[in-house]
Specification:
Blueprint (H helix, E strand, L loop, with lengths): L9 H24 L5 H21 L2 H18 L10 H16 L10 H17 L1 H4 L28 E2 L5 E2 L23 H4 L10 H19 L1 H31 L6 H49 L1 E3 L7 H11 L4 E6 L4 E3 H22 L3 H6 L6 E10 L2 E8 L6 H10 L5 H4 L4 H5 L22 H11 L3 E7 L3 E9 L4 E9 L2 E6 L3 E7 L5 E3 L2 E6 L2 E7 H4 L12 E8 L2 E6 L2 E9 L13 E6 L5 E5 L1 H13 L5 H12 L3 E5 L3 H14 L2 E5 L2 H10 L4 E4 L8 H10 L8 E5 L4 H10 L3 E4 L7 H10 L5
Parallel strand pairs: 4-6, 11-20, 15-17, 21-22, 21-23, 23-24, 24-25
Antiparallel strand pairs: 1-2, 3-5, 6-7, 7-9, 8-9, 10-11, 10-18, 12-16, 13-14, 14-15, 16-17, 19-20
Helix pairs in contact: 1-2, 1-4, 1-21, 2-3, 3-4, 3-5, 4-5, 8-10, 9-10, 11-12, 12-17, 22-23
């Protein structure tokens, strides 16, 4: 669910959206400048320009509408292969992006007689040249051109953007690798000789477009195959036991014959022959059994190796190099350093380190916050650095590596460091902690304050910092993927932020423990440490138990009590304890036993179960037994609620409040922050209870977990568009009667028919915000908010 933005004006919301979308545009344009071209880049830039155009139109910033529309036309034409966008055009495109970013923050942006309309007209005219100058920008359909020798002052082999898809020699649709240059200025067309692109692709792997959902299913199937193969071990063990029994039988028959001969006992001929035949038959069966055991053991070993390699390859297919997620950072560092009169060298180490694509998509925002903080708070001005005996140019290093089955990212700057005493005083000033307690806090405990919402040491709010929201966002995003963030600093020398993340969200490295006879898994990234605690080391204060470690008091609770599996059994001695923490709270969970570490395949719980308290997901052990993976953040909250006597959950309380006041509840789904908040304010002002979602998938998750009377949705959204969302709602037997209103910029009759055919109850254009049509439609479908 999206954050509450009710305190922002519509113009402020547009400025926030302008910041977000211009960052997307800058990333794509810099990729063009580096000759790293991809149809996905063009698609992302088209979407960003389209969203900016719509948001600007709502708030009435017409200059931004004109420039965003011209950019969108440019990217649409590039996506169709009608024009070539070359690196030398990056300055013009970046000028347009800078204009959009500037006009969003201008006080006179809404004044028709201000400077912005004239600037917009000039930029639109320049962009128009990209359509009119065929010899420079368009595709020549005639004879193939011969590339000119590269100039010493121009980038080698300027490359034109390929169409969104190419036809492979096999006839299958493929996506060109982003870094593969074409051999000439001419862009191949579908239907042209496919061998024309073979020389350029010979040195690169073929890239096939595969959906993320398909990869997720493949990961699940490969994991199941690996688990099933490992279940062959008990059969191998059973056959080995049978072989041992057969050997004992053969030895017993042989011993019987030897003993009768040694004792001089003459057995009847028929008995002697029967014993001899039994011994021979047993020997033959043993020989056959040993062969089958060896064959089956070899078969099981080969299959486990094959399944393991298959699982590994599927996991690797979900990986992307870290470089894919940080392409915008060089310009971020350059522009921000110039604006602050700093000199900064930015280095990336381990940029090819593999990261799960789901994690990588969420990493850009927290890493950007940390780099901005390093430049603004850490790196000193050149004069200050020279006075302190440092180089005038500061250094920021982003380093990524795999370590102990985890992804570790470090951001280090050689700036002024963090003043711990100033942090301590600031915490006391804001009444976050009493002075006598603050004086006893360790340095690491004091540094945790910087991750609190709204905490800042800046006395004045600037465009870059001072609002105290950056590091709180960093910690929230890191924890959302099951990771942790830590900070260390040496005043005058350096500051290091360390992000510890899972390498992939499909597989988690976890500690298995036993609680009430059942296995539970704790992700290693969320465990502070484990240890055995003697009963003599436990202290009791005001009815609560704790033990001390490194001069810290850590509260103790029984895991079976929190997880609701209590058997009343006494804990073993010494007691196995898992220490976990979240948001400055640290607790020790007493478990029955440590069962060792495992790499577990993460299996989401059935969506019909909803959110299960203290549990995140599930997995299967090697023997096929299920194991639950705990949600550490939820677990810490449950421990705190139990100790404080708070048993009514937040969700239940909100549900009771809604039932008491009987207010109609509406979900607004739109990827534009401006449109989303406008719709929320219109509905809220009329008395409706409104939630918001940032895209179709976020909206679908909210619908499954909430109780709504109506859904308002956009059409063009990432991950899941509005048509797909409507189809999911109407295809669900439990929610098929939920009214859905589509509100879109698209006003063609074909678009309206498409939305209504999918099951939408109404289809409105976003011009309906300017009259009573929008609100009237909602009331027609579900009535007044308190009816």
């Amino acid at each position: 669910m999206a954050e509450d933005l009710s305190g922002f004006s519509m113009l402020e919301l547009f400025r926030l959206e302008a910041d977000t979308q211009t960052a997307v545009l800058s990333t794509g344009i810099l990729a063009i400048e580096r000759l790293e071209l991809s149809p996905l880049t063009i698609e992302a830039m088209m979407r960003a320009a389209h969203s900016l155009k719509g948001a600007a139109r709502i708030v009435g910033v017409e200059p931004a509408v004109e420039v965003a529309h011209a950019l969108e036309d440019c990217f649409v034409a590039a996506g169709r292969g009608e024009i070539h966008v070359r690196p030398e055009h990056a300055d013009l495109l970046l000028s347009c992006v800078d204009f959009l970013a500037s006009v969003g923050h201008a006080d006179d942006a809404l004044q028709p007689d201000g400077p912005w309309p004239a600037k917009a007209m000039a930029l639109v005219a320049e962009l128009g040249r990209m359509h009119s100058f065929t010899d420079d920008f368009s595709v020549d359909a005639g004879a193939p051109t011969v590339p000119a020798p590269p100039s010493a002052h121009a980038p080698p082999n300027p490359t034109s953007l390929p169409p969104a898809h190419e036809e492979s020699p096999s006839g299958k649709e493929t996506a060109l690798p982003p870094t593969t240059p074409l051999p000439s200025e001419e862009t191949p067309r579908i239907g042209d000789d496919p061998t024309a692109t073979e020389p350029a692709l010979a040195s690169s792997d073929r890239v096939v477009r595969v959906s993320a959902d398909s990869l997720t299913r493949l990961v699940g199937l490969a994991g199941e195959a690996l688990v099933e193969t490992r279940q062959l071990h008990p059969f191998v063990d059973g056959l080995l036991g049978l072989r041992a029994s057969q050997i004992e039988l053969c030895d017993a028959l042989a011993a019987l014959e030897d003993r009768t001969s040694a004792d001089g006992i003459a057995l009847p001929a028929s008995v002697s022959m029967a014993v001899e035949r039994a011994r021979q038959r047993a020997d033959a069966m043993l020989s056959t059994l040993m062969k089958h055991v060896d064959d089956f053991e070899s078969f099981a070993r080969r299959n486990e190796d094959l399944s393991g390699r298959l699982h590994h390859e599927v996991i690797v297919s979900r990986m992307r190099p870290l470089a894919d997620g940080i392409r915008a950072f060089p310009r971020l560092v350059r522009d921000l350093a110039r604006s602050l009169d700093r000199q900064v060298r930015f280095q990336v180490r381990g940029e090819q380190t593999g990261v799960d694509r789901d994690i990588l998509d969420k990493l850009e925002a927290p890493l950007s916050h940390l780099i901005r903080n390093a430049i603004d708070h850490g790196i000193e001005s050149p004069g200050e650095r020279i006075a302190e005996g440092k180089s005038p140019s500061g250094s920021i290093v982003l380093e990524a590596r795999h370590r102990a089955g985890m992804l570790q990212i470090l951001i280090t700057d050689d700036g002024r460091g963090i003043d711990v005493q100033r942090l301590r005083a600031r915490a006391v000033e804001r009444d976050l902690v009493p002075r006598h307690v603050a004086e006893r806090l360790t340095e690491s405990e004091v540094l945790e304050f910087i991750f609190l919402p709204g905490f800042s040491t800046r006395e004045q709010v600037t465009e870059i910092s001072g609002r105290g929201v950056g590091l709180d966002v960093v910690q929230s995003m890191v924890k959302a993927v099951g990771g942790t963030v830590r900070v260390s600093s040496q005043p005058g020398r350096h500051t290091v932020f360390t992000l510890q993340l899972p390498i992939t969200m499909s597989v988690v490295r976890a500690l298995l423990v036993e609680v009430a006879g059942e296995p539970y898994a704790f992700p290693l990234t969320r465990i502070d440490h484990i240890q055995f605690v003697e009963q003599a080391d436990i202290r009791t204060v005001e009815g609560r138990q704790f033990f001390r470690r490194d001069e810290e008091s850590i509260g103790l609770v029984m895991a079976e009590q929190i997880l609701g599996t209590g058997t009343g059994s006494s804990p073993r001695a010494p007691m196995p304890v898992v220490v976990i923490s979240d948001r400055g709270q640290q607790f020790g969970l007493i478990v029955d036993a440590f069962l060792g570490e495992r790499d577990l395949e993460v299996r989401p719980l059935d969506r019909r179960l909803g959110k299960i308290a203290d549990i995140n997901s599930a997995s299967l052990l090697e023997n096929g037994d299920p194991v639950l993976i705990v949600d550490v953040e939820d677990l810490v909250l449950s421990i705190d609620n139990m100790l404080m006597g708070r048993r009514l959950s937040r969700v239940d309380f909100e549900h009771l409040v809604r039932r008491a006041r009987r207010t109609k509840r509406v979900l607004v789904v739109d990827d534009s922050i401006t449109v989303r908040e406008l719709e929320r304010q219109l509905l809220h002002s009329r008395g409706f209870d409104v939630d918001v979602a940032v895209d179709g998938m976020d909206g679908w998750n909210a619908i499954r977990g909430g109780d709504y009377d109506l859904v308002v949705s956009d059409v063009d959204m990432p991950r899941l568009d509005g048509i797909g969302l409507v189809s999911l709602i109407k295809g669900d037997p439990l929610r098929k009667d939920l009214p859905v209103v589509i509100v879109s910029y698209k006003d063609r009759e074909s678009d309206r028919i498409r939305g209504l055919d999918a099951g939408a109850n109404r289809y409105l254009t976003k011009t309906s915000f300017h009259d009573q049509t929008f609100i009237s439609t909602i009331i027609d479908l579900i009535g007044e908010p308190n009816a």
